[in-house]
Amino acid sequence: MMAFAMLPEEMNVLTQHFRLTLEPSLDRRISIPSVSLLDRDKGLELMDKVSTVFETSSKVAVVSLFAKRYGFMSILSGLYAMTMFDKSLNYSIENCHLESSYRDQAWLPKVRLIRWDVSRPVEGCREEWRDQVLRTIFAGNIAKVWRALTKIAPISASVLWENAAIYVYWLYENRIEEGASEAQKSRIRDDFQYLINEAPATLFGETSNPFKKFNSDKIMIPTSDVPLRIRKTCCYYYQTSDEEYCPTCPKRKHEVS
User: Fold this and answer.
1) Which residues belong to any copy of the Ferric siderophore reductase C-terminal domain (predicted)?
2) To the nearest whole number, what is the mean pLDDT of the chain?
């Protein structure tokens, strides 16, 4: 694979919309190298700190809500760059650093990379390159963090994978096509279908493709103006101070409209 660089306008998109950052956060209390999450003691210490942010004493809820934020920051900028720019950054767990960040009082951490090497596919070899990009993001980072989190709290890995899946679906179904060229639209369709239907389990560090089983049909419900995909697992948001179920929570009684 040949080495390239991100254009300034490409980096602007990733940093402004997908929680990638170039600078360390001033808040070092809840900033941590991603690889430190694999250390149970350090992971527990971080969960204790973010429990005050989520205003819950439920360790399961804290882990689930943390996984949502970690998944967003560690997955979406990489997938967006892969599909829209045909470029990849290195999202291996050893190369990522969680940087604490707030917006409108909400804790929305960002990911900072240690090395900023960029690659593009060799002509005629995009599928092989794409596999490597996905393997680095998922098997090389997300799956490792999910396994570590399940040792911190009694939570199913399926919950954590669905937390990631909802953002992948959102990216490809609702966000990524804005202003896309015909070539980019073709990659959007191909990459999305590959991710949720065809990608082998090994790219995710799992025994099966974790996104495929969550790819259910969307339905219309009375509380929404657009069709929604009802979750198969509960993310435990209701155990926070808001004490509310998410609109797509399976614990809700959904009446099809």
Assistant:
1) 231-251
2) 93
